[in-house]
Amino acid sequence: MIPVSTLDATPVLGVNMANVSLLRLDLAGGLAPGNKSYKLRHNLDQARRLGVRRLLSFGGAWSNHLHALAAVGHSDGFDTVGIVRGEAHGSVSPMLADAKAWGMQVVHVSRTDYRRRQDPAYLREIQAQFAPCLVIPEGGSNVAGALGCMDIGEQVRSAAPFARRVVLAVGTGTTLAGVAAALAPAAPVGAQSTTTDIEREVIGVSALKGASDLEQRVESLLSTCDADNPASWRILHDYHCGGFARVNPALREFMLAFERSHRIKLEPVYTGKMLFAIHQLLGSGRWDSQQPILAIHTGGLQGRRGYPWLDATPGDGL
Ligand SMILES: *Cc1c(COP(=O)(O)O)cnc(C)c1O
Predict the structure, then answer these.
(1) Which ligand 1 atom is at minimum distance from the Cα of 170?
(2) pLDDT at res. 228
(3) For ligand 1, is residue 64 a contact (CB within 6 Å)?
(4) Could you report the per-residue pLDDT of 257-292, keeping only the tens digit for each?
(5) Phi/psi at 110 (nearest 5 deg)?
(6) Under a CB-based contact definition with an 8 Å cutoff, are residues 258 and 279 in contact?
């Protein structure tokens, strides 16, 4: 069972968030907390079925996905290869240092080569170079990834049976697709309904600026995982705070205040922006502060090391 934290009435910058509960994926999952190990589950199963002992994927020097891949490879006995965007210069990021300590072979490629990461010819080259290996797309964004995230949806159902709004951060949309697929509404009209399941809305908060193809990506994942009746879902595009991994003063102020009030750590790339969105929507009255909200804490706290301003806060070292 994944722990759930219910926020109390301590206001955050004047806004009461006591109707918000957090599903704490950040507290579960051992070396790979958060959503990323869910996305890898079925990919690992596939590798086992194929008898392949090496997993390869792509990411930046601060990739939570490569970090998790290295961690699960280490604990489940797979060799791992991380193709990293951009030439290595100077110091290794703490994320890649962890990955290397877990045995990942880190291969830096130029930004030009990295751009070819979905090009079939390039993938064949990579496959041949590291054969036999299973290639997992950047961010763990494939159908196996979405299927694995259906388990998160099941956790939401038991953790917060009455929450109509389920909110989570979106990068590739894979986690959103899995959660929406798992939270399918109760039996369709006319069928005998044996459940008392409620209608939920899954709301994704995009961590990226102007990612206008996200909805299309989610649709296509949903259709390939045979989820013909997902929960209703939408993506909010106005809370990127300047772009992917960027921080603006409003986000920084919110995160520091939230951590101080609720003693729960966030990181600025995903979970900080997701809770910032909820805070803004409650504060402006667009969302009713009486209605229960379940927010998914998707982890990523290892990435806090890229933001030194977070370390000195009272929220740290809890
Ligand atoms: C990767 C990540 C996400 C986004 O997941 P997607 O499935 O790519 O949308 C959200 N939160 C955290 C902490 C992440 O590391």
Answers:
(1) 9
(2) 77
(3) yes
(4) 999 999 999 999 999 999 999 999 999 999 999 999
(5) -65, 160
(6) yes
Instruction: Give the predicted TM-score (pTM) of the model.
Output: 0.95
For 68-95, write each residue's pLDDT tens digit. Answer: 999 999 999 999 999 999 998 888 999 9
Burial class (CB in 10 A: 0-12, 13-18, 19+), 269: buried
Whose CA is closest to 182, among 147, 209, 207, 136? 147
DSSP E strands in 131-262: the ranges are: 134-135, 165-170, 201-206, 232-236
DSSP state of 199: P
DSSP assignments along 299-311, one per residue: --GGGGGG-HHHH
Q: For the residues 25-35, what does the mean pLDDT come to?
A: 96
The two structure tokens encoding residue 302: 């290892």
The residue whose C-alpha atom lies closest to atom 10 belonging to ligand 1 is 169
Taking CA atoms, 18 is separated from 121, 304, 310, in Å, by: 52, 25, 24
CA distances from 276 to 2, 62, 251 (A): 23, 22, 7
| Contact predicate 273/236, CB 8 Å | no
Residues in the chain: 318
The amino acid that residue 204 corresponds to is G
Which strand ranges, in their side-by-side order, compose the sheet holding 105-109? 105-109, 79-85, 54-59, 134-135
Determine the distance separating the centroid of ligand 1 and the alpha carbon of 3, expressed in angstroms. Answer: 19
Task: Give the model's pLDDT for residue 238.
Answer: 98
* Cβ burial, residue 250 (10 Å; 0-12/13-18/19+): middle
Residue of 27, 57, 138, 175 to mutate, ligand 1, most atoms within 8 A of C-beta = 175
Task: Please list the residues that pair with 55 across neighbouring strands.
Answer: 80, 134
User: How far is Cα 304 from Cα 96, in angstroms, rounded to an integer?
Assistant: 14
